[in-house]
Design brief:
Shape: globular
Radius of gyration: 19 Å
Distance between the termini: 33 Å
Length: about 325
């Protein structure tokens, strides 16, 4: 069975509702699984109760085994603990982001993973079609900025990976497709041994799930493709809201006339979306597109945006704009 999965808790409730509503339009009847970032999922539990195609992942054994493996993995890193302590991050930084690894346990045979801050804006069939040939499919331009994939100053990146591999396989963990059982923490002693031997220094602790997935795909030499590199140039699009040249028509987004497969609201704090959905006139890129999908099934609950326009401040998207601009096609 094919499906789409995401990750979150009640803090990103509005974004998850928007994502699910967009999936309803562009992939009708596609089942969706939400992996719990933590235990704060009361609103999400109520949401899935009324949406039969959606499930909230509750396989405790699966969650616990991946949590335990992640703890083992990060224990091999020489500086992660110090870097997390410096920013006041208790435990493993953004531990809940690793819960997306549960997708390798199920419930789907093949799946697309989408971050909660994304919208599906096109038919995902080409991605699933690519899984007939590849075990890992991505669609982004993260290879243009490897500083959020690996610790580029560690000295290990060039030792472990060729320039061609970094160009072809590096990806953003906000959108990818794969299959059941591709990675298994119970059969990963070779990975842990490699990390313990010193390779863990290549991991970038501030993007913990993204750096691990990239390491696994590249180190295990997974058969992968990036649609941004293999699609004909006239069919490729960007996907990030940091692109200001996109156009919007009927709540679909276009890049030079080509419809986007998905739109990623990367770098925008979930607090901004919560404020917006509480009626605050917050300035976000492609704001009307988000609001359209968020309130598709409840237009009567869409709040009127009152008062002076509030520009998003740092912790919002503008502090991410310069580095993310390098990821444009």
């Amino acid at each position: 069975m094919d499906g789409i999965c995401t990750l979150g808790n009640d803090r990103v409730y509005d974004q998850i509702v928007a994502l699910i509503n967009s999936i309803d339009i562009f992939a009708p009847k596609m089942p969706v699984c939400i992996y719990p970032y933590d235990d704060r999922v009361d609103r999400l539990r109520e949401l899935v109760r009324h949406r039969p195609s959606i499930t909230l992942y509750d396989n405790t054994a699966s969650i616990q085994r991946w949590d335990a493996w992640v703890e083992q993995l990060w224990a091999t890193h020489p500086t992660a603990r110090q870097r997390w302590d410096a920013i006041g991050s208790a435990g493993i930084h953004r531990m809940g982001t690793h819960r997306r690894f549960c997708a390798f346990d199920g419930p789907f045979d093949r799946f697309i993973y989408m971050d909660a801050d994304t919208l599906l804006l096109g038919d995902p069939a080409p991605v699933f079609d690519a899984l007939s040939e590849y075990d890992w499919v991505t669609y982004d331009f993260q290879h243009k900025d490897l500083s959020h994939v690996y610790d580029v100053n560690s000295g290990w990146m060039e030792k472990l990976f060729s320039a061609e591999q970094l160009q072809r396989q590096a990806f953003c963990s906000g959108f990818y497709a794969s299959r059941l059982g591709l990675f298994d923490p119970d059969n990963s002693q070779d990975i842990l041994n490699g990390l313990k031997s010193g390779e863990s220094a290549v991991l970038y602790p501030m993007a913990p799930d993204q750096t691990i997935l990239n390491y696994l795909v590249m180190r295990q030499q997974v058969n992968s493709c990036n649609l941004a590199l293999i699609l004909p140039p006239e069919q490729r699009t960007g996907n990030s809201v940091t692109s200001s040249h996109f156009t919007v028509e009927d709540y679909r987004v276009y890049d030079k006339g080509v419809p986007l497969l998905y739109l990623h609201y990367i770098g925008l704090s979930s607090k901004l979306f919560a404020r917006l959905c509480n009626g605050e006139n917050v300035d976000l890129p492609y704001r009307e597109v988000f609001l359209h999908y968020r309130y598709r099934h409840e237009p009567e609950n869409r709040p009127p945006l009152m008062g002076k326009l509030v520009t998003a401040k740092p912790q919002g998207w503008r502090r991410y704009l310069k580095p993310l601009a390098q990821l444009l096609p």
